[in-house]
Amino acid sequence: MAKSPEEQHPVKAFGWAARDTSGVLSPFKFSRRETGEKDVRFKVLYCGICHSDLHHVKNDWGASKYPMVPGHEIVGVVTDVGSKVTKFKVGDKVGVGCMVGSCRSCVECKNDLENYCPKKVLTYDFYYHDGTMLYGGYSDHMVADEHFVLRWPDNLPLDAGAPLLCAGITTYSPLIYFELNKPGLHLGVVGLGGLGHIAVKLAKAFGAKVTVISTSPSKGKEAIENLGADAFLVSRDPDQMKAAMGTMDGILDTVSAVHPLLPLLSLLKNHGKLVMLGAPAKPLELPVMPLLMGRKIVGGSNIGGLKETQEMLDFCAKHNIKADVEVIPIDYVNTAMERLEKADVKYRFVIEVGNTLKAA
Asked: Which of 92, 221, 265, 321 could pair with 316 in a Cys bridge, judged by C-beta atoms 3.0 to 4.6 Å apart?
């Protein structure tokens, strides 16, 4: 007979879990493995609520396993390290993002691209190498192989920094890979949510001119005055879109709703790049003619490897980039999920796990 989550491992753990596709979270007792020789264990202080957590708890992608403790934007303080750990010591501030494992031997892993390893192990709602279920950061503590643990820069706040572990690297990696990090480029950012607002800050730090593209005219003031964008474009306004045709070197599209790509392709200069970062549930229509006529590229990107994620954290610390967050107690998490579904947050909820998660 299979062991219960509480009996699976020797170390008791406590968090909040979804039990079914309602996505409603409630207190949950489970267990985590002992600290292995290469493991780092840490007390969770903060955990961001990523939009993908909402998709996972509601089984929007059809593969969710319950009970599920979400959370992959996790920061805290080391409480224990294995005998062969070299990078961390007790008391260090650390983070864990979207992955806690990979094969470590394929061509992707050898090139510091663990995020594209065919055997990568996600932080929650996934099975670990030993076949046991993994639980995420809406919990009192975490344990992970030191390779998948990130050193937290001293001057980066834990609460507003937590979302960088997913939203930060998801927008940083394509800027680097698609060479959109050169000063003087004109970049568009589609959607001003958790990913979009970080994309604006990163692009500005790289020296780009940034235009936010949104269906909501109400976000214009926020984009320019608070986030430092240079311009704002209402994608539903044909005159504004026409005036901006052929002006952008690259566009980061962070929208997960189904939306037309043709208007975005028309904004690109010849040889421009449209990079998809959102994950719409249905396929999008891709008109090929604009690609041919302007040698334009539509690409995609998904988080980043551990080396690049560390670079991103250090870059954000240096340039004072952090997420705009609303810090909440754990017992507000269901309300936060409802608000997230309505896009009623600027721009990321972060759970203050350390002070508000109490074992029943």
From this structure: 321
Work out the burial of residue 62: count CB atoms within 10 Å of its CB; fewer than 13 is exposed, 13-18 middle, 19 or more buried: exposed
SS3 label, residue 268: strand
Q: What is the pLDDT of residues 103-123, one digit of tens each?
A: 999 999 999 999 999 999 999
pLDDT per position as a tens digit, 233-280? 999 999 999 999 999 999 999 998 999 999 999 999 999 999 999 988
Tokens 């579904």 belong to residue: 341
Going by C-alpha positions, the residue among 301, 302, 299, 304 that lies closest to residue 112 is 304
What SS3 state is found at 138?
Answer: coil
Could you count the other beta carbons within 10 Å of the beta carbon of residue 239? 8
Dihedral class, residue 358 (left if φ above 0, else alpha if ψ from -120 to 50, else beta): beta
Dist. CA 326–CA 49, nearest whole Å: 10
Closest CA to 57 of 136, 151, 167, 111: 136
Please give the Cα distance from 57 to 17 (Å, whole number): 9
Identify the structural domains of the chain with CATH numbers, from first to last: 11-165+325-356 (3.90.180.10), 167-300 (3.40.50.720)
The dihedral over CA atoms of 263, 269, 275, 281, expressed in degrees to the nearest 10, equals: 10
CA–CA gap between residue 261 and residue 251 (Å, rounded): 11
pTM listed for this prediction: 0.96
At 123, list the tokens: 């932080």
